[in-house]
């Protein structure tokens, strides 16, 4: 959803609770765009879930969205009032607006004094379970307040995984309001502390823009430790057990530094895109990639010079793209006749047809702790 978000929006409440200074430090800052190719894809899936129309999506995403819509339809009782992406507010003592936001989906049965709340997660990461989820708790209290009902059954739906979280029923409206009120009160305090941590720093705009003093101090301390380790620890002399311990001790620190550095790079890119440059920094020339867009026309043009075998020896085909094209054609044909073919079925058919000519390669995995 576009537009201005509330300073204490439902999705930021846990961050505000864990790091009260983050609200003040992040105020007025924009999200720094990352290099996440899945973001736009997830947004399109979210839009399809909101409208109920997945026809414009590629086969795999379309099937995921349709599965989610079918699941939701199966749990909502007939006659319940359905709302999709409707803005709600949570009002505290003195009629102050503590927070406001837009739930993905909810349905209300006033006669049963019950609502069903659904949050879509269209990425590849799982969220906090509903029972410990500040965002869902805030939405649940908003719904209880708005419709004067007693309970809200909440679930998270993961279309890509075709799975749902455990359900949780929120009933303590007053307790949630008090919890949110306390989080806001802590943030508004003049001496609100800055408390860095993996969870609260993950989506903090202050960290993305390098505005968090505590995070900066933490990373500088880790850099000093890393430099000391590089200069003083003789890696070649370590036993396997010592090397394993050293790796496991330093990996989370190095991962945190790399994540911070990625935020720095994204911030620099953002400023270059906005202002044309960032101090002495600019975007260098990227690698030039040439790609033949029309294979048939390319073959016609090269036919006087290359044999068919020589031309095909220069060409390659993406098995994934070919599989998607096959699946789309099969599903479209089935729908035209009033039927339906699952993506899983299309993939099995593709494997049966193309298995002899598709080579599967496995990339070397990352280092991990051995089982057992």
Q: Biggest sheet, in brief?
A: 6 strands, mixed
Overall pLDDT score: 88
Number of helices: 14
Class from helix and strand fractions: alpha+beta
The poorly predicted ranges are none
Oligomer: single chain
The SSE order reads: HHHHEEEEEHEEEHHHHHHHHH
What percent of residues adopt helix (DSSP H or I)? Answer: 40-55%
What fraction of the residues are assigned to beta strands by DSSP?
5-15%
Shape: globular
Radius of gyration over all CA atoms, rounded: 26 Å
How would you characterize the overall build of this protein?
- The chain is 49% helix and 10% strand.
- It has 14 helices and eight strands.
- The strands form two sheets. Strands 1, 4, 5, 6, 7 and 8 form a six-stranded mixed sheet that branches. Strands 2-3 form a two-stranded antiparallel sheet.
- It is globular and about 85 Å long.
- The model has no long low-confidence stretch (mean pLDDT 88).
What's the arrangement of secondary structure elements?
Blueprint (H helix, E strand, L loop, with lengths): L12 H6 L2 H6 L11 H14 L7 H17 L5 E4 L3 E4 L5 E5 L3 E5 L4 E7 L13 H14 L3 E8 L4 E2 L3 E3 L2 H16 L9 H4 L3 H4 L4 H20 L7 H36 L19 H8 L5 H6 L5 H18 L6 H12 L18
Parallel strand pairs: 5-6
Antiparallel strand pairs: 1-4, 2-3, 4-5, 6-7, 6-8
Helix pairs in contact: 3-4, 5-6, 9-10, 13-14
């Amino acid at each position: 959803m576009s537009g201005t978000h509330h300073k204490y929006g439902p999705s930021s409440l846990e961050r505000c609770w864990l790091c009260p200074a983050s609200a003040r430090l992040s105020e007025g800052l924009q999200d720094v765009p990352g290099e996440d190719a899945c973001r736009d894809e997830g947004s399109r899936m979210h839009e399809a879930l909101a409208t109920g129309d997945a026809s414009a999506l590629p086969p795999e995403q379309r099937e995921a969205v349709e599965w989610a819509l079918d699941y939701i339809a199966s749990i909502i009782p007939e006659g319940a009032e359905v709302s999709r992406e409707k803005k709600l507010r949570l009002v505290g003592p003195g009629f102050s607006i503590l927070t406001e936001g837009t739930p993905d989906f909810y349905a209300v049965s006033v006669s049963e004094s019950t609502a069903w709340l659904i949050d879509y997660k269209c990425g590849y990461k799982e969220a906090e379970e509903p029972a410990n989820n500040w965002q869902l708790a805030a939405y649940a209290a908003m719904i209880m307040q708005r419709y004067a009902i007693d309970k809200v059954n909440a679930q998270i739906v993961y279309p890509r995984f075709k799975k749902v979280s455990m359900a949780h029923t929120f009933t303590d409206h007053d307790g949630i309001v008090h919890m949110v009120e306390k989080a806001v009160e802590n943030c508004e305090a003049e001496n609100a502390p800055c408390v860095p941590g993996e969870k609260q720093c993950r989506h903090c705009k202050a960290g993305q823009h390098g505005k968090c003093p505590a995070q900066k101090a933490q990373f500088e301390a880790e850099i000093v430790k890393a430099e000391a380790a590089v200069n003083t620890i003789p890696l070649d002399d370590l036993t396997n057990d010592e090397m394993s311990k050293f790796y496991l001790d330093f990996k989370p620190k190095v991962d945190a530094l790399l994540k911070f550095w990625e935020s720095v790079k994204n911030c620099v890119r953002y400023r270059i895109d906005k202002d044309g440059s960032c101090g002495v920094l600019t975007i260098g020339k990227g690698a030039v990639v040439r790609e033949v867009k029309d294979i048939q026309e390319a073959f016609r043009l090269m036919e006087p010079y290359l044999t068919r075998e020589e031309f095909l020896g220069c060409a390659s085909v993406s098995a994934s793209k070919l599989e998607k094209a096959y699946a789309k054609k099969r599903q479209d044909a089935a729908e035209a006749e009033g039927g339906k073919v699952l993506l899983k079925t299309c993939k099995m058919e593709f494997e049966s047809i193309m298995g002899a000519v598709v080579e599967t390669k496995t990339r070397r995995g990352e280092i991990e702790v051995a089982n057992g």
